[in-house]
Amino acid sequence: MAIVTGELGPRVRWAFSDRDGGMSGAPYESSNLADHVGDEPEHVKANRAALAAAVGVEVAHVVSMAPVHGNDVGHVLGISAEPVPRVDALVTTVTGSALLVVAADCVPVLLGDSEAGVIAVVHAGWRGVLSDVVGTTIAAMVDLGAEPRRTRAVVGPAICGQCYDVPRDRFDLVVAEAPAAVAVASEGRPGLDLRAAVVERLRGLGVASSLHAGCTSESANLYSFRRDGLTGRHGGVITLLPVTVLS
Ligand SMILES: [Zn+2]
Fold it and tell me: What is the per-residue DSSP string for 16-79?
């Protein structure tokens, strides 16, 4: 698995995987992180363990979610083996836990305010952009003591606006809420740039972000549901380290 790691301040570590180097066989080859697509559970667990290890966390401490393309945020109060149901974002202040977001064209976002000790993950497709799942997640972080101007984000790989052509009515609906999503897809069809919409929403809230990786549809080493149909999911984890007492 090609895993890229980074930090969002001294207490927050993150990692993103692609689809290479894991345990899963076709059509999930090979680093599928999703437990809802029909892959072998043991392979998914091994792939998740490799990603979790990159941020120094045991796979048993990884909390996942079962997104429904809504804008509800799950508040993680402790370690749980079961995915948090019916949410598209997770937020926590629990040190030593890791939050997981998986995707294959939708936008995965990792967020952290290291000073406040608050981390979050977001899964945003076009419905999530429309319902402002990014805004509801930042609000949930603020409720736990985070400050937007201290919060930093990594926005992971997603389908780009040139590849993501959509029906005109969906285009109109989304760009009315998120003008930054406007894109022109192949043959001049209406397109949506969901990453641009997410980055612009974060910027509007005062949250600085950086982009990780590129277009899922164009990258053979990333999963794309639109390109492949039945396939796996890549993803990211974020973890909060304990406060260390400096001597
Ligand atoms: Zn593309």
Answer: EE-SSS-S--TTSTTT---SSSS--HHHHHHHHHHHHHTTT--GGGEE-EE--SS--EEEE-S-
